[in-house]
Fold this sequence. Notes:
Layout: E1 2-7, H1 13-22, E2 24-29, E3 34-36, E4 41-43, H2 46-54, E5 58-59, H3 68-74, E6 78-82, H4 90-93, E7 100-104, E8 112-113, H5 116-122, E9 127-134, E10 144-151, H6 158-182, E11 197-198, H7 214-223, E12 230-234, E13 237-247, E14 258-261, E15 266-269, E16 274-282, E17 288-289, H8 290-295
Parallel strand pairs: 1-2, 1-6, 2-5, 6-7, 8-11
Antiparallel strand pairs: 3-4, 7-9, 9-10, 12-13, 13-16, 14-15, 15-16, 16-17
Amino acid sequence: MKIIFVGTAPLGVPTLRAIAHEHDVLAVFTQPDRPAGRHLQSKPPPIKEAALELRFPIYQPEKINRDVEFIKQLQPELIFTCAYGQILSKKLLQVPSKGCVNLHASLLPKYRGAAPIQWAIVNGEEFTGLTTFLMDVGVDDGPILLQESIVITDDDTAATLHERMATIGPDLALQTLDELEKGILQAKSQDHSQATYAPKITDEMARIDWSQPAQKIHNLIRGFNPVPGAFTFLNGSRLKVYQSRVIASADDGEPGEILSAGPGGMSVQAGVGALELLEVQPESRRRMSALDFVRGHKEAVGASLG
C-alpha cells in the first residue's frame, strides 16, 4: 500500500523500518526539531533520523492539520501513526482511502492518552500491551483492530518496557496492514465504559510522597525512569531516584526518614514498609549509586526526605 507514516518518538522507529520493507512509504511526517540537552541545541526527533537514513521525504509542520491539501496531493491509501504528539483532524482522517491506523502503547480502552507506558507502571498494572486501531476524531477511542499483551515485571522501568514494546510493534503493525489490505480484518468498537487515561506527565507528578506505601513509591520510581525522574528533597536540595526495591520494615520510623545505609543502598521509611534506594542523582550532579551518595553525605542517616 501507499502509506504516509506519522510519528515522533523512538517507539515508532522499528515499526517505520518494518513498514518500509513491505509497503511504499510516500512521506514521513514528524514534529519539528526541538532544543534539547544542557545546551539546548536543536535536536531532530528519532523518527526524522530514521527517515533520513531510509531516504524518505520528511515534513515537520508545526500543525499537521494545516497540510491537508498537500497530503491529498500525495494520494496515500493509508496513514499510519505512532506516538506523534498531535491530534489529526476529521478532514485529514478522511484523506486516505483505507483510513488512518494508530499503534498505541496500551491495551485500549485502558490508558488512552500521552503516557500509557509510564502510567501502567505507576499504577501497578501486571500487564499492558499494544493496540492497533482505526483513528477517529476522539483521543485513542477508535475501533480496535489487533492487540498483543505484555507482562510488566517488578523490575521493569518505563525505559525497559518501551524497549520491549518497540520490538513487538513492527510485527503487530505489519499483520494489521496485511489483513487490512486483504479485507479480512474486522474492527471492534471499544467499550468506552472501561476507558482510563494516561495524561501528559508534569514535573510535580514525579515528586515522591513518603506517606504512601513502599510498593506504590517503587512503582512511581520505575514508571518515571528515566523521564522525568521521580524526586524528593534532602536538606532543601532535589534528589532524583532512579532505582529502588521494597524491603521489610518494622515501620518504626517516620515516613521519609533515612533509616540506614549499607552496601545494598539507602533504606527509607515509607507510609507502609520501606524502600532501599539503589540509584540516585543529586542536584546538578551525575547519576550514582545510593552508597556513593551516602559516602559523601554521612549526615544523611537519620535525616528526612520530603
